Model the fold of this input.
Amino acid sequence: MKRRLVFLMGVAAFALGACANGNLVNNAANMKPTGSAFNMALHKEYVALAKAEQKEGDHMDAAEFARRAATSGAGKTVEPDNIFDRSYSSNQRATLFNARARLEDAISAGGPKINPGLMAKAQSQFDCWAQELEENTQPKDIAACKKGFDKSLGILENSIAARMAYMKFKSKKPMKKAMVKKVAKKGPRKPEDFVVYFDHDSASITDEARDVIKSAAAAAKKNKSIRVRIVGHTDTSGSRRYNEALAERRTKAVDKVLGWEGVNPLIIEPNSMGENDLAEKTGDSVKSFQNRRVTVTVF
Done:
């Protein structure tokens, strides 16, 4: 009797959850979207994904797509799927990382204004692909989402390239007589360090830390760096074993943001030192802001 009661309670909880998620889908579908043409197109695409997942009985993903639809429909920005919050093989993650980079390039190049519908289709199909690939149970759905992404983004990229070529041609001025300038020979570029600081017993990226990481990423891209080294540190509060793990988490957090800022993950060399190599020399069990850091070196 007791087992049956527990089972019935579980069924009831599941039903309530499914009902709540169903309400999210219905609310998102019935709302009147506002904002840019891209926002409204993205709302429509996410509603379609939410309904498809709901039809398959995947109420959790249906609710997630419904939330994205509601956010976009309210005129707010919805970022493409965060692939680092999902579980993939190394090859799958690398493939999605490159695909997301293409998507971000199209957004930065004005894709949402050049063709809102195609841009929305490309983003929603990328998110569909990322979600289906993590589940990895429906090969046909994975292939369909990937195909939708490649097709819509490919057409959009061609439109962006054509527009850029036209704008470049339009802005050309009559050529002046070439002038020869002497260019001083430059020696090897010196490595540049960027220090990211953390709160006590934390691996969370603060706003100040994010700004430092963005600067490091900008320097790496500007200089076309082929190597970026990141080393995590802690102060001496806590045990050595705990600090080794904390330093590694901080390194991974910075590594993740560098990736989002466009630094090729293949050139990043992550490492962690725990409470070794202190910036501020202290005794054991001492809290020190200067020592709670990750150093990013751009070569």
The chain has a mean pLDDT of 86. The radius of gyration is 24 Å. The CA atoms of residues 252 and 281 lie 25 Å apart.
